[in-house]
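Board notes, transcribed. Complex of a protein with biotin.
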Amino acid sequence: MAHDITQLQIDVLNELRSHPRSYISMQRLAENTSHSPQRIARALKELENWGYRFLHDSASGVRYISSPDVLFPHEIELGLEARIIAQNIYSLDRVSSTNTLAHKYAEQGQPEGTLIIAERQTAGKGRFGRSWHSPAGCGLYFSLILRPPIPPAQAPGISLIAALSVVEAIRASSKLKAQVKWPNDVLCDGHKVAGVLTELAAELDRVRYVVVGIGINVNHEAADFPPTLRDKASSLRQCVGTPLHRIKLLQLVLSRFEINYLRFVHCGLKDAIKSIRRYSSVLGKPVSFQINGNHQQGRAVDIDGNGMLVVEVNGKTMTLGSGEISLAENY
Ligand code: BTN
């Protein structure tokens, strides 16, 4: 079910927010929204039940104070700096997986940039068939539908720029030195705080569409993770020490992603690669990985212009296309 407030509630909010420091009388709210004062009073009560805060004064009227951190489309749109990404938003209280729903919507012809986001996922998907733990209200779980005019072989670059965009957004909104763990994880203080699952629908030489799914552990506390994940995973809240505003972070990720994505479509990873290298958690480190079932060890020496990881193994260099690597010392 769609996760949003009514048009009347949005109109009331817009009126109040357009005069952030003043009271507005119920009479004026009623006139400007073409509804009765009784309906306005009911709308305000319902907004307060969602967590919006207002000051009420019997003589002067109502004044806007603050919004809850709930993923309503109009809250995501407000102040979002993007012109393609998230111009079309589906927000749900609960979904099996935003990626699964995004595939369905992409097949139905939803446009490039469509955002599907949920407060919780009941069957969130991770890479390699793993699940992505998605408890209600504390994380960001969302997918974007993209229709890039690129050959399928270039699509893995989208995972890298998605991870880079998350890193840039975290760095811009906190003091955390977030890092990209090639190819598509995000680490803070050595712990995984976000992951990207990019899925492709393609013909041999043409991408039909891409679903890029991003999961960010924002306000989880230790108890929100299953015990098996507590060693490796963390949340931004655990790293910073205080809760973060999810919508502000989401808006930053989306606007960074739009910039990086448009550059990627235009000239591949050329513009992003410097930042991907600068923020990499693996370069210069010993890594272990598997090729054709064989366990190998080496040292990560570069991420090349195509986004491949260059690894030195016994004095020889080899290039890894995707898959999973582990940093030799824990991570
Ligand atoms: C990984 O690190 O294994 C990738 C995790 C990706 C999780 C996100 S949450 C939103 C989107 N919907 C899903 O079912 N998965 C991705």
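The chain has nine helices and 14 strands. The chain has a mean pLDDT of 94.
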